[in-house]
Amino acid sequence: MTGPGGTWLISFRVGGAETALPLGVVREVVACPPVVRVPGSHAFVSGVALHGGVALPVYDLRRFSPFWSGPRPVPAAGATAQGEHLIVCDWGEARLGLLGDRIDLLEQEGSDPARPAAPGNRGAVNDEFVSDVLRRDDEWVVLLDPDRLFASLGVPAAGPPRAMEEAGEDDPAGR
């Protein structure tokens, strides 16, 4: 979704970093349902959750070491240790959930190449996953690059579903 001033984003906190994703890849945000751990899965895969009657893989970026440029944050103990919200994303033909807190809608103004980079290490998020850094009030917000993020998580898709629709592919299988 793009408005007259820019592009809309969903911002959320992961670990100690304020991050955001383009609204076009976010299907919905819901209170985090129960997540069932899958034996043998990576530590950053929290498990699966039922969403609309379908098992949805749930990822916890706090536990995804490559996401962080330094030591990854240690999840706090207690009921909110897994995140308060589930950010349901569509990516190609895959649907997945990311855990996050402090969800908000944010408008990205037009890009300003003269804008200075965020001080320090951009909230400790690895630059590989950052497409831009935005300022909201007195806080830096790291805009995540969905292509790199989802590919690194192992999500089996080439892009958001809208990219296939725009290319005129109603059914990628040719049916």
Written account of the structure:
The protein is mainly beta and 175 residues long. It is built from two helices and nine strands; from the N terminus they run E-E-E-E-E-E-E-E-E-H-H. Strands 1, 2, 3, 4, 5, 6, 7, 8 and 9 form a nine-stranded mixed sheet that branches.
Care to give the gist of this entry?
By secondary structure, the chain is mainly beta. The protein has helices at residues 146-153, 161-166; strands spanning 6-14, 17-22, 26-31, 45-51, 54-59, 85-91, 94-109, 130-136, 139-144.
Radius of gyration: 16 Å
Identify low-pLDDT runs.
112-116
Q: What level of helicity do the residues show?
A: under 10%
Oligomer status: single chain
What's the tally of helices? 2
Q: Would you count the extended β strands for me? A: 9
What is the CA–CA distance across the termini? 29 Å
Give the SSE string: EEEEEEEEEHH
Structural class designation: mainly beta
Mean pLDDT: 81
Question: What summary fits the major beta sheet?
Answer: 9 strands, mixed
Quote the beta fraction: 35-45%
Per the principal axes of the C-alpha atoms, what is the gross shape? globular
